[in-house]
Specification:
The structure holds 2 protein chains of 2 kinds. Chain A is built from 10 helices and 10 strands. By secondary structure, chain A is of the alpha/beta class. Chain A has a single domain, classed as P-loop containing nucleotide triphosphate hydrolases (Rossmann fold, 3-Layer(aba) Sandwich). The chains are: A alpha/beta, B mainly alpha.
Chain lengths: ~240, ~290
């Protein structure tokens, strides 16, 4: 079966600064994959390369077998990739409702209202905050809004850039629990970047480990966690 | 007392022109952080198009609508063909491009339509019932047209999907792309709408200032002042700034500086706002939580 997302021999650079070298990875339909690695390993760059966001890319990127590298960010969104960017990308001056409407910008079908309701089931706080300006939300609420915004498009693949960033541990647990439920219940494929290796290892079905722009390990969390150098470098054991 | 009331009301009429121009400037500034110095010349050129159509026998309001269509297309074309190339250029390059456009449209208008001053018709009958001792029918008409246009713009931005997408693109282009909005086209659309607003101002101003290639020179200056006064970052402040400035101009002209120094008043307002309240009367100083 063709994987939903496939990177083959991808090099990526900002201007002349090379960041990724020969990255190859696959994300199976319905799976949850974590991209782990230290600061500056190229995790965010990998997500940016997939969506063609200011990164120069060589190599092949495919969505369900179809080449998407070289397409514009807008087109890639239209092809079904949702992206919760680094820093959440909230439209701060707009209301929560408008943020969610923008998430569904591409949709013309009648299911939008029903999906909104469904998302309120996962993130009840957004219903309470619906008419509030998004900039007034707390960090955790903004993260939920960012995830809900991306989900409103009902993408085939959801990219998440450090959903735990800057949040209290209890909130992180909550958000990760919700992500897992959405993955299972909605069959939503996810590729997430995470700094917190321990959390990610508990959450996902497959891990890709990046080191200075190269994939150094890839496999189920158990296998990765068993690796001696991984334990030392990322789990502090 | 009557004279004062007259000055204030006709100030609102002039102010409606500044309001449209100021809103046009703010719309482009919000989306691109560039100030469109050519806004007035585009409006002037559109007014010539209306003039040509009316002289060819097209009824006024039909010519009005066709002209709006023309300015929309021209605005979109200018953005797509010229200004998008300056999107990542330095501020100075962009300013030079705008000044180039200004000179170009001014020259083209002179070339096509000559520099002879022409009388532009008003669609409002000078003896219409809605004329009063204080306001001529044309002045009532231009205030009404401006208010209707402002209302349409408000509804468009507040309640339509496209309006929302344009606001989103102005605030956060990257996130907008991620939800699939074609940000480049939203900018072009913004240019088209701004140039429509300018054309309305031009057609409403022309019966008063007369039609000639430099007709908008003074108006655009007041437009800048109005935009700054209302807050260059605030689309709702700009029209209010326009109306305030119109009244201020008339009062100062009648009672303080005299008609000869009216234009200097606009410059005075620009300097005063920049010195004392750079964010304008209704501007928001952006506070960012880090």
């Amino acid at each position: 079966m063709t994987p939903l997302l496939e990177l083959r021999g991808v090099d990526a650079a900002y201007g002349t600064t090379a960041v990724l070298r020969n990255v190859t990875l696959e994300v199976e339909d319905g799976s949850m994959v974590a991209l782990l690695g230290a600061n500056g390993a190229g995790k965010t760059t990998t997500l940016r390369a997939i969506c063609n966001m200011g990164v120069r890319v060589r190599g092949e990127i495919r969505l369900a077998g179809r080449r998407i590298d070289g397409q514009s960010t807008e087109t890639i969104a239209r092809l079904g990739i949702g992206h919760v960017p680094e820093g959440r990308g909230t439209f701060l001056s707009l209301s929560v409702e408008e943020n969610l409407q923008l998430g569904a910008y591409l949709r013309r079908d009648r299911g939008v209202a029903a999906d909104l309701k469904r998302l309120f089931g996962y993130f009840p706080v957004l219903r309470e905050r619906l008419h509030q300006q998004a900039g007034t939300l707390s960090g955790g609420e903004q993260q939920m809004l960012a995830i809900a915004r991306a989900l409103m498009a009902w993408p085939r693949l959801l990219l998440l850039d450090e959903p735990s960033f800057g949040l209290a541990p209890i909130l992180v647990q909550e958000i990760f629990r919700i992500l897992r439920v959405i993955n299972k219940e909605e069959h939503m494929t996810m590729l997430l970047v995470e700094q917190n290796a321990r959390l990610a290892l508990d959450l996902v079905g497959h891990v890709v480990l990046l080191e200075t722009g190269r994939v150094v390990a890839s496999g189920p969390p158990k296998q990765i966690a068993a690796n001696e150098s991984v334990r030392r470098a990322y789990l502090g054991q | 007392m009557q004279a004062l009331l007259h000055q204030i009301l006709s100030g609102l009429a002039n102010g409606s022109i500044y309001a449209s121009v100021a809103l046009a400037l703010v719309m482009i500034f919000k989306a691109t952080h560039q100030v469109n110095f050519a806004q007035g010349e585009l409006a002037m050129f559109s007014t010539y198009v209306a003039f040509t159509l009316i002289n060819a026998g097209v009824p006024y309001w039909v010519a009005f609508v066709i002209t709006l269509g023309f300015s929309f297309t021209a605005g979109v074309a200018v953005e797509r063909l010229i200004l998008r190339r300056f999107r990542h250029a330095s501020v100075l390059s962009a300013v030079i491009a705008f000044i180039g456009l200004l000179v170009m449209f001014n020259g083209l208008a002179g070339w096509f339509f000559t520099y002879t001053i022409k009388v532009f018709p008003s669609p409002f009958d000078p003896h219409a019932w809605y004329g009063t001792t204080y306001l001529s029918p044309h002045e009532v008409g231009m205030i009404s047209v401006t208010l209707i246009v402002l209302a349409i713009v408000f509804v468009f931005f507040r309640f339509t999907r496209l309006g929302l997408a344009m606001r989103a693109s102005a605030e956060n282009p990257q996130s907008s792309r991620l939800v699939g909005i074609r940000v480049g086209w939203m900018l072009a659309l913004g240019w088209g709408l701004a140039s429509v607003l300018g054309a309305v101002a031009g057609m409403m101003a022309a019966p008063i200032v007369f039609l000639e290639p430099n007709m908008m020179a003074g108006v655009i200056l007041y437009g800048f002042a109005a935009a700054l006064l209302g807050g260059i970052d605030n689309p709702w402040g700009a029209p209010i700034g326009g109306f305030i400035l119109g009244v201020l101009e008339n009062l100062a002209g009648a009672y303080v500086v005299g008609t000869h120094l009216k234009l200097a008043l606009a410059l005075f307002v620009i300097v005063a706002v920049l010195v004392f309240k750079p964010s304008g009367l209704f501007g928001r100083t952006v506070v960012v939580r880090v």
